[in-house]
Amino acid sequence: MPVNDLPALLKHELGDLLYAEKTILKGLKKMTREVSNPDMRQRLEAHHEETEQQIQNLERAFEAMGQKAKAQKCPGILGIMQEHDEFKSDEEPSKPILEAFDLGAGLRVEHYEIAGYRSAIALAKALKQREVVELLRQNLDQEVAMAKFIEGAAAASLQEVQGKLAQEEQARGARGAKTAAKKAAGRRASAGGASVSDADASAALAD
What we know:
The chain is an all-alpha fold. It is built from five helices and no strands.
């Protein structure tokens, strides 16, 4: 139905956020499986629980406005999630590279949510919906904290990724050298066998 006033716009924004949080809840499970750093995994698991609470807060915000909670399809968050999935399928990154990519993907999600909550809070304030403002502010504070965590952990996480890549490169080099050595030994053995055969043939002719 048409959105022609601020209450209708706030309802739309709440629906957008509700859809986004439900989508993110599924994405967090996937991202947690892709992370090897124990601190990052623990924080993602904690944020999963926060997101469940955020969904409840949004449903309560609808109730505070006298509205039934209804998720509104959110193309923005779907695009961010699709970008992650397409990178994973199209680029076929190694596990360390995927972890590095997930840092940026996670930060994009958080900033998208932060912008959404700040916009909705501004609308709720204009409409003097104090309970809605408080509920949305709780969610916003958690998103800001998560964004700060990712930003703070990024440097150490990327150094860890770089270390893993260096180890993988060394392992590939060692395997390559071992394979080359085996091939060289095989060639020497073949050459040695050929020399013996030649000598035997010469001896037979001499007899």
